[in-house]
Request: fold
Amino acid sequence: MTKRRIDIITAQEPPTCPRCLAEGLLLARVPYGWANASGDPVDGQTGVVLCAACDAQAPHAAPLITWFHVNGNVENETSEEFVRLLVAWAENASVPPLDEGRLDEEISLWRSGSL
Ligand SMILES: [Zn+2]
Reply:
């Protein structure tokens, strides 16, 4: 099993949540990997914003959001608890790599009258 690398992007300004356009708590660069149309694996990285509002209901995001509420910032980002929460969140942060496939699926469902 390959270790996935998660980078926290730190900047002067807080990240902007792409969903609600409010200030996000954290911007992380997480790896993704899936197969393209030819079945070849595609590896890359994508930025994911942790947002206190949008991710409040996400099971793996909630503990990390709570961590931010308690600790305020990531100055002590090497703390074991923080890293554990970060990894759990990043591993489950839904990077939707299969949007295209899902769309096709929805179109065919729609055509077959199941949608
Ligand atoms: Zn948001």
About this structure: The chain has a mean pLDDT of 78. The CA atoms of residues 31 and 45 lie 4 Å apart. Residues 80-92 form the longest helix (13 residues).
